[in-house]
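Sanity check. The docking grid for pyridoxal-5'-phosphate depends on where the pocket ends up, so I'm generating a full predicted complex first rather than guessing from homology. Inputs follow.
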Amino acid sequence: MAGYNQLFVPGPTNVPESVRQAMNMPMEDMRAPDYPSFTRGLFQDIAKVFRNDGGRVFIFPSSGTGAWESAITNTLNPGDRVLMSRFGQFSLLWVDMAERMGLDVDVIDVDWGTGVPVELYAERLAADKEHRIKAVFCTHNETATGVTSDIAAVRAALNAAKHPALLFVDGVSSVGSIDFRQTEWGVDLAVSGSQKGFMLPPGLGFLSVSQKALDFAKDSTRNSRSNRCYFSFEDMIRANDTGYFPYTPAVQLLRGLRVSLDLLLEEGLDNVFQRHNRLAEGVRRAVDAWGLRLCAKEAKWNSDTVSAVLAPEGIDSAQIVKTAYEKYQTSLGVGLNKVAGRVFRIGHLGWVNEVMMCGALSAAEMALRDCGAKITAGSGVGAALEYYRVSQQPAVAKAA
Ligand SMILES: *Cc1c(COP(=O)(O)O)cnc(C)c1O
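Predicted complex below; grid placement will be based on this.
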């Protein structure tokens, strides 16, 4: 078929041309004398995207899941009590990992379509006078349900209880797309990956760590029993401090990362967040005009990087996704686990603009109608394009 396949899954996301070209390079020597002059800038600039002042960012040749594991094994011991919540496939998988790594997980299950239950966290923390809870985990943006949680409020709950637990945040589908402030919010371990807001192919796991978490990891009276090797902070720090890595880094992806960081920082993080908010709002207007609802149960949970749309009663959402792919060359996200067959997802993160989103909405609308949804042709797309036309553009719109 002619034309591009349209990619609107919430990861991997579209890769800017300039990033792709930067990765089309002859292989290079990762032990060359001038390699540190390249990597030092990367370490500095990626910390800016996490808004991490004073800590450091580890870049692993892994997916985001590897960074999850690194965060746990470098700071916690098997048997440590941790507080987690589960409300979608990604928060569910992190709980599963924590249990498999031997942590004593206090997991709070809440409705899929809501997010981190801050009030319940506050109660648990206030009741934990002996400070048995060693860490509190949050999935900032639950990609399966299109739900964003309030991390600043979790920090406030920790502070109110004067609780010393470490704060772990999964920011795989939020960092670089939705407001995230590691230092201001006192996030100790923030996880992300290359293939979502960072606009790169999959293959890099990022772990942005506070000084408190680094001290914790070093203190063998507090942390000595977890096995760690490939994901060890100690090995990474020793090599990164000289500008190198303890094993072969993903050299091409790092060249791509250089360009994607430049794109994010040149546009300005606040402009990037605003762009995501506008693009998301257009999608929400379309969903509303179709007479459909989001999986997110209240507007306060709405995600600016992915919308999970509830299929009309009696229509299998997987059929909508399949039709969009086969008939209109457009990839939408399927429903995962508990919401399989019930939601389809539209990713609106990374290297996307208004007209691209109108394309995604057109395919979704046609597929919905093909599957029997009683919606008026052009209704959703019309609502979105009118919103995009009249709403403010960010001051700088730079071509990649
Ligand atoms: C994609 C995603 C992950 C998993 O990351 P991988 O890179 O696939 O290992 C984890 N958490 C969230 C919120 C995600 O969106």
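Relevant for the grid: The first strand starts at residue 6 and ends at 7.
Also worth noting: The two ends are 27 Å apart (CA to CA).
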